[in-house]
Amino acid sequence: MKLNKELLKGSTGTMILTLLGRRNMYGYELIKELEKSSGGMFSLKEGTLYPILHGMEAERWVEAYWEEAQGRQRKYYRITEAGKRRLQEKTAEWKQFRDAVDLVLGEGKA
User: Where is the Transcription regulator PadR N-terminal domain (predicted)?
Assistant: First the structure.
């Protein structure tokens, strides 16, 4: 089943911060890890990912650095302390939202 892209919009940043909270990654690696971690449900294009990462850099939630890997320079991203705080906030917000939707759908506990 294909998901409506509008559902993905509000949670993409949180998922990216979550992945970077696990380990530092370069862009293409983030795309592949998101796809793998979601069982193939979420697949981002580079044209979607990089504007999100650049916005996160501007907010100081992530920072980029260059590192040589397999003989070539790659731009890696890591979560910052501010990014970790933002992730905590967004995760709590997501859980509250998910619980409320589950209640409406009859899936949650009242």
Answer: 16-89
